[in-house]
Amino acid sequence: MPTCGVVYVHSTPLAVCQHVEWAIARVLTAPVTLHWTAQPVDPGMRRSECSWTGRPGTGAELAAALRQWPMIRFEVTEEPSPGVDGERFMHVPGRGLWRGTIGASGDIQLGEDRLRAIMAATRAPEALSHAIDKALGTAWDAELEPYRYAGDGAPLTLLTRVG
């Protein structure tokens, strides 16, 4: 059963745009040509987004392919599908890659075992709050938010994984 998702490349140097397209094409096993626009939050950088269709796990493959370039900011989402949780990946230079499970409404979900581990590892209320924020990807969200806003109304490319 196929699933779908979106790749948001929030900022990348112009010289890396073609490499990003090639990386996405390798994962989807289909030619990819994205529509690149200026990223107003980061002059000189470009942004693009594309929706994709493929088998479950494609989102993780896309995130792994894009993290080769530590200077780009990106997000990859994969919608939940029958028997498979959805996923969201965020990458910010200097912070690295974050991964979270998402539900049907798009909310980040923390499992029981993860919450228990966080509670067992923290004693002070501030430490608990910090650990939960980290598990929810709060810092990544905060850093990407201006880039998301700058992309409102940008063109979207539709892609389908072959095979």
Describe the structure in your own words.
With 163 residues, the protein is α+β, with helices and mostly antiparallel strands. It has one domain. Helices cover 34% and strands 30% of the residues. The chain has five helices and eight strands; from the N terminus they run βαββαββββαααβ. Strands 1, 2, 3, 4, 5, 6, 7 and 8 form an eight-stranded mixed β-sheet that branches. Strand 4 (73-78) and strand 5 form a beta hairpin. Helix 1 (17-28) packs antiparallel against helix 2. It is globular and about 50 Å long. The model has no long low-confidence stretch (mean pLDDT 91).
Question: Keyphrases for this structure?
Answer:
8 strands, alpha+beta, single chain, 163 residues
Percent range for β-strand residues: 25-35%
Number of helices: 5
Element-by-element helix/strand order? EHEEHEEEEHHHE
Count of structural domains: 1
- Give the overall form: globular
Q: Please, what is the oligomeric state?
A: single chain
Could you tell me the number of beta strands?
8
Alpha-beta classification: alpha+beta
Distance separating the two termini: 12 Å
Please tell me the overall pLDDT: 91
Report the helical percentage: 25-40%
Radius of gyration: 16 Å
**Residue runs with pLDDT of under 50 for 5 or more positions:** none
Major beta-sheet overview:
8 strands, mixed
